[in-house]
Amino acid sequence: MCDICDGATWGEVLLRTHLAIAEVGWSYTAVTGGPGASCWTYTVGLTSTFDHPELVVTGVTPDVAARLLEALCLRIKDGDRLVDGAERTVGAVRLVEVHPAQLEPTLADWVRYYGALGEPLTTLRALQVVVPRAWF
């Protein structure tokens, strides 16, 4: 479900995102600086499918981010609400509310995806997944 463009057109990316959300309830987008570089990766679909904040993880490789987000998204799909106030610990990671001012420019594919569908944008909320320093 990782929607890295890899030369795809915006329409192809939109379709992949839509199909993933229809199949499992979410997709994710990784933004990298190049091969082997750390990235930031975020979900699209958790808000509309599960009424749950989107998830954002930074500072790890796309493979680590994908595995981490997949595990957390499966918990959400199974009914776990990862929001209990300002911060929550799940296993080895902490989840912290992202300030609304950081969301729209950071989660651009979320905004573009729902805008392209013509759906009214709900209030975007996201949780930063803070990984242990040992994972870097």
List the helices and strands and how they pair.
Layout: H1 10-24, E1 27-32, E2 39-44, H2 46-50, E3 54-60, H3 62-77, E4 87-90, E5 93-97, H4 103-106, H5 108-117, E6 126-130
Parallel strand pairs: 3-6
Antiparallel strand pairs: 1-2, 2-3, 4-5, 5-6
Please explain how this structure is put together.
This protein has 136 residues and is α+β, with helices and mostly antiparallel strands. It has one domain (10-135). Helices cover 37% and strands 24% of the residues. The chain has five helices and six strands, in the order H-E-E-H-E-H-E-E-H-H-E. The protein has helices spanning 10-24, 46-50, 62-77, 103-106, 108-117; strands at residues 27-32, 39-44, 54-60, 87-90, 93-97, 126-130. Strands 1-2-3-6-5-4 form a six-stranded mixed β-sheet. The radius of gyration is 14 Å and the shape is globular. The two termini are 23 Å apart. The relative contact order is 0.18. The mean pLDDT is 80.
Order of helices and strands: HEEHEHEEHHE
Low-confidence stretches: none
- pLDDT average, as an integer? 80
Strand content: 15-25%
Distance between the termini: 23 Å
The number of distinct β-strands equals 6
Structure class: alpha+beta
Q: Profile the largest sheet.
A: 6 strands, mixed
What is the global morphology?
globular
- Order of adjacent strands in the largest pleated sheet: 1-2-3-6-5-4
- How many individual domains? 1
Secondary structure tally, helices: 5
Binned, the helix content reads 25-40%
CA-based gyration radius: 14 Å
